[in-house]
Amino acid sequence: MSKMNQTSNRNVNSARNGIFGLLNKLILMVFPFVIRTIMIKTLGTEYLGLSSLFTSILNILSLTELGFGSAMVFYLYKPISENDNPTICAFLNLYRKIYYVIGIIILILGLISMAFLKNLISGTYPSDINIYIIFLIYLFSTVSSYFFFGYRKALLKGYQRSDVISNVSSIVHLVYYIVQIIFLIIFRNYYLFIIWLPLSTIIENVLVYFRSRKLYKDISCFGFIEKDIKSSIFKRTGALFGHKLGAVLIGSFDNIVISAFLGLTTLAIFNNYYYVIIALNGFIDILASAVLYSIGNFIVNKEKEDIYKLFLNLTFINITLVSCSTCCLLSLYQDFMLIWVGTDNVIDSKYIIILFVLYFYTWKSRITGLNFKDAAGMWKNDAVKPYVGIIFDLILDIVLIQYLGIQGVLISTIFVMLFIYFPWETKVLFEDLFVRSSKQYYRKMITYSLSTIFITSLVYYINSFIIVSNIGYLIIKGIFSFSLFIILWSLIYFRTSEFHYSINKFKQVFTKRS
Description:
19 helices
């Protein structure tokens, strides 16, 4: 296949992944929002808190996956580009065996962890359910992904066909959410509500399996990987494990610590606010994940100067999206929460709202650098970083929550992301991938952050005179916030090459057909 055709295919795949990924994210965002609303009205906030706690525990148990999924996608790049089907089949066969082992380990650890469930809940929990039965349902849903063809998703990602996964996920989750809503409204029974979770997981994986088999008929699980390559995979995965550990444990520790010290109701309220951030994160991640595998190909085929220029351009696009979201979030956050969950389920503190917004900004402003590191397979280069971050986050969580409550949990995570993760990631990226000084990048990031603070503060001040009493006023306030941000941001950066690159990219999105 010629380089021109490869480039064309990458563009088509990126566009397709973005479109169907966006649709999938919309479904995964809107319906859980509706379900959370109904649960608050029908069952109460403690059920939401219990769901968040169990999900966090199982996220930790799923760390036994060790990042093999990401590692396998990385190792599939070369054989896929060379149409080396025997090697692809051998990698897939290895991945399947690993997933079976991981599923068994998670099942065993999950059963052991049941002995400690009550110790992780402060105060009361719903009296009409057995928390152990509910946890077993969550556990079965988690392990079923490893036993039922979960490994096939790596193959589709390697071929840049994440759109297939998104389409299947959209269909299955749409049906799943509708059924959940019907049972929740009619029966108001948490058992009947949650029992559909493992079933949907199995159906989704089975459909992905058959779809991937149809697309790649010559690819199946057989053959063996040479020992030296297998050893390299496990070494790389060992480094990747730490990064996966850091990404999962920080959020999971927050939830577990809140549950253990402040109770399920407080955890539910915290997660209502956090859910809004996750929704915004979903939109931004669409663009990031849609081009991630194309970045991997770009890094392999281009010179370091070209890679660095692409990095700066994508950083500007990402920071524009993140800053715009930050601006709108601060102005609309509390108004939205009051309309959504009512006065009894909101946090009455401007400082906590600001911390949530800062949490979002420090988290998502790092995404471009992380994507370049992942695409280049640079997991060993800062292997110690996540362990340092985890230790600081856990210690600060436990200490600060006793004095500051929820504020302490947010401050600890912001500290880790801003003063440990970001500078460490930047140092590795510039020393090992770009091989150049990071001073220019730091100057740009400081300038972007100052611009964000200035615009967000100005928009928030103006919006403080707009009283929101219903969803109509909220929409008007949102349109105003978005429009004013775009105008001011454009005035500041319209002379830069990154701005013009962004404009051209957005034009391509709306004018080119995939």
